[in-house]
Amino acid sequence: MNDAPISPLAPSRFPNALPVPGVEFAVAASGLRYRGRDDLLVCRFCEGAEAAQLLTRSKTPGAPVLFSRAAQAASGGRIRALMVNAGNANALTGPAGEAAADSLAEALAARISCSTDEIRLAATGVIGMPFDPAPVLATLNRLEYASGGWPRAARAIMTTDTFPTGASELAKIDGEPVVITGIAKGSGMIRPDMATMLAFVFTNARLPADVLDTLLRSAADRSFHAITVDGDTSTSDMLLMVATGEAARHAPIERADDPRLDEFRMRLERLMIDLAQQVVRDGEGAQKFVAVTVTGARDEAAARRVAFTIAESPLVKTAIAGGDPNWGRIMAAAGRSGAVGDDFARWRLSIGGVPVVEGGGPRPDYREEEAARHMAGREIAIRLDLGEGAGEATVWTCDLTKRYIEINADYRS
Amino acid sequence: MNDAPISPLAPSRFPNALPVPGVEFAVAASGLRYRGRDDLLVCRFCEGAEAAQLLTRSKTPGAPVLFSRAAQAASGGRIRALMVNAGNANALTGPAGEAAADSLAEALAARISCSTDEIRLAATGVIGMPFDPAPVLATLNRLEYASGGWPRAARAIMTTDTFPTGASELAKIDGEPVVITGIAKGSGMIRPDMATMLAFVFTNARLPADVLDTLLRSAADRSFHAITVDGDTSTSDMLLMVATGEAARHAPIERADDPRLDEFRMRLERLMIDLAQQVVRDGEGAQKFVAVTVTGARDEAAARRVAFTIAESPLVKTAIAGGDPNWGRIMAAAGRSGAVGDDFARWRLSIGGVPVVEGGGPRPDYREEEAARHMAGREIAIRLDLGEGAGEATVWTCDLTKRYIEINADYRS
Q: The domain containing residue B293 runs over which residues?
């Protein structure tokens, strides 16, 4: 299915992803939907592991989302295993889909000898296709767990993604080293109203679920909540963070604002920004990576809204695809965002560091060749200052190309 | 510039558009931006003509929009002429652009011997390009006015449109016949937050500006405010209605809710729906015309929001382009609309009259071939009932094809 060329924005190689004490995983080809490729990832966690999660805000969530939401609440954040299927999202599948999800969780819980509440499920792929759990259940018998092999794990959860996405960081808590490793997948339906696509972040720090929850939400605001590909939100988005506590020598942490977490917080945020940006770099059909920064907005929410309106404008995104520094479309998108004042003569727009607009029109010294040179590249930077306040936000996105249409017009056929 | 093939959704011919007493117009090739085609339309109205208008809500409006807003306020709705340029929107052109707009209005007012407040200006085309009024001013000397030739008038205001858009109706007020004729142009940047693209509606009814204003807003809500192509809103959108009063034999009308206007109101609405749907049929790259109807929403605003979210979802629009009855994407779009309740098991979705979803998943008797047969056609009907209330809305849109990308990635080059 995924014979697409690798995104030109892909990193040169999968990063050196560290094993996380307390995390083992197994990968298999269940044949659920794809043939001849891995499509199942099961992660096993040591006793005592805790989890936090962000799930799609969609009102039509998939069965795995419903299951995981209930499991998190019932377990108080305890977790022993995660199962991820690729190819069939088990969403909009009615009561049969929910029963299928339950059967997966029950089978896995029985093998691991834990409660079903300690299982989390995720799935990605086609929506509304009947989900037959049989091939997955049959596969559970032959799983072989290991603590390494992150690239294979990241590949197993891909759908239309063109490269596996991973990142790893070392941090210190209280002077003691801990590992953070994460994997993710996109690559359409990326608009984080809440959580977004699938991303799994693992650490061997020993952190209670409520602390994890605060850390995860804060880092998500600056990473997965700041990206967009097409403005669509999936039925199946999940961002899960697991802390195993295995081999963690730091003293107990009880509060998310504990200053001993400062470095960990920074490394976690960096890792999640890395994963989120990779997801954008693998946006369907993406040929260019775009950072839209809005400053001088009346507040941060307004800055985000303006930045998202620019980043999601089909006219802006197609102009970028064409290498056209069409600053008029950028201004027009901001103008219709609903989050700006009347006096656009105060706005200053630059493209790739080239000052373009000031005083309500192009600067007298603006030379289009300079902006066009920047737009010909792979990494596009758009900055708009509104001159209204102190609100700032950056949103990352990609261009909108014919390949996006090809992928999405033909996805099921 | 516009060598694109005519939209397959185009009407077979330009309608039989009636002359409107009190309206004369002239068309010319000014050479402002295009070569070898008409790009200037000037309409002259008899003394006593009155106007109402809806303008873009964009906070970066073009100079013609700023001019027309001020002129409408200063004149109390009196109007003697309208000038429309195609090719250069005179938007985001700073003080020089505003001065250029003023110079056009002054020259036209001098020729017609009216106040500049009785002029309205509109423009469409590239944003942010310096607007040199000289070629247009030079053309004013050689205009030849006539009361017929609507297809040529409609062609003169086209940009990436592939066919000229017009409609005409006869109505009776108080037993006396009046004419309504309108022209419009799209064809990207179609998302009516307020007015949308350019549409000009003329009648020889004798109606004061405040009555016109009420009629226009009401009809716009059911026509131009119910269409979307790409979710973008232009800097230059204008919907203008002019009532000349010439040869109108009906008794004076002072209130928009006068029952003697019932037939006129209905005909006006029908004409504006016709124009609006033609705009969608000429949406950039459109291959299919789509009607999205949402019923059972908690109120009309919620129904509109759900319908617009479906109609603007890139994943829904690309699936339609591919002829794929991908109902999961439709449900998922509704699910993220922010205007639906939690119980999607109550929703009923049909595609082309084929019942598809019920009880949270596909109906047991759903056969995809039936929906696929409908999706293979040119006219797509999507109906979603939410079972929550009495809110209803229909939104018209088109599919999203590779041609949209081509047009917009290359528009300026």
A: 289-409
